[in-house]
Amino acid sequence: MEKLEIYGTLGPACANKEILKQMFFSGMNGIRLNLSHVNLTDSQEWLTILHEAAEEANVEPKLLIDMKGPELRIGKLDKPIHLIEGGIVCLGTEIAVPEQVYGHVPVGQRILLDDGKFLLEVQEVKGKNIICKVLHGGELTSRKSLALPQQHIQMPVLTPSDMENLRLAKKYGITGIMQPFVRNAEDLKALKQIVRELDAESLEIYAKIENMDGVRHLTELLPYCDHIVIARGDLGNAMPLYELPMVQKHIQDICHAYHKPYMVVTQMLHSMMTQPTPTRSEVSDIFYAVYHGASGIMLTGETAAGAYPKEAMSFFAQTARSAQNVLKREAANQKNQH
Ligand SMILES: Nc1ncnc2c1ncn2[C@@H]1O[C@H](COP(=O)(O)OP(=O)(O)O)[C@@H](O)[C@H]1O
Ligand SMILES: C=C(OP(=O)(O)O)C(=O)O
């Protein structure tokens, strides 16, 4: 059995040597840094703590950088904005949005923020003002994802800051790249070309499947990456949510058929953002991801910004181990029968 990769996401909630050490002791053997929120140079202190914690826990972790890539996000907010259901919010002025959004926001267009947690509907566009009605509200914080269902926006594979981060990757001990919104083989060929030019070819490539283009072109893009990531946060925005498990299964089936390692990620212990114990359905999700053959699993907000990063990692790794034990038992039984 291949070694299971168990990742946490580095963020303010766990950027502490003792917490990270506990997470490594629990079974974490990889960490992801989301460069949509920081650059490598800003993260120097966190990475030093991370390397020290890993050494003290005697773990040699994989260290992945998640690029900005072609992902759309709102800008930095000075303070959280409370979006009131039925109220009006102006994108482009109150909340900064990427320039590419203009031209893709007809009246009636739905806009999903923060992996679909918030839902807006465009009422009118006046110059730079995209006036929206809030359908699902709540407390919105900086740099959350923005999705425009049914709209196709051409974006470059990497941003200038991604290139700068890639240039520094080796110096910071990075082992792999998570490339967001991979749409087809061309995206990965372009990424590989840039990686070659920046002398960063030793980095493993994790292709995040986050929209239906990526799902449709999966078999053709497999040869150009080392791992597939079923990035359910954004992927869930691309379909009615009840179809997400079916699409996850479809991706898994293709990865199994082509012997491509794949990771299952996002909201695996979402309730532990605020609670010290998970729900029954969350532990089942983790168990079956591992039992069905995932090569890796990853916590995102739970360790980056949640209230219980240590406890979340402990539940995560223990549940994964219980699935691995069943797999070992089944393999041993099968061997005995032959
Ligand atoms: N390096 C970081 N610095 C500050 N905040 C971070 C960092 N990484 C993650 N976060 C916070 O944790 C949240 C969840 O992390 P993640 O799942 O990686 O982000 P997102 O859902 O925005 O893609 C982020 O939205 C952000 O508020
Ligand atoms: C992990 C994911 O990516 P991000 O954190 O960039 O939304 C996801 O969409 O599932």
Automatic annotation (TrEMBL):
Pfam families reported in the protein's UniProt record: PK
Cofactor(s) demanded: K(+)
GO MF term (any one): kinase activity
Pathway where it operates: Carbohydrate degradation; glycolysis; pyruvate from D-glyceraldehyde 3-phosphate: step 5/5
Catalytic reaction annotation: pyruvate + ATP = phosphoenolpyruvate + ADP + H(+)
Enzyme Commission number(s) of this protein: 2.7.1.40
Organism domain of life: Bacteria
Domain Pyruvate kinase barrel span(s) in chain numbering: 2-312
Cleavable signal peptide: none
Keywords, sorted A to Z: ATP-binding, Glycolysis, Kinase, Magnesium, Metal-binding, Nucleotide-binding, Pyruvate, Transferase
Family in the record: Belongs to the pyruvate kinase family.
NCBIfam families (alphabetical): pyruv_kin
Designated name of the protein: Pyruvate kinase
Species: Longicatena caecimuris
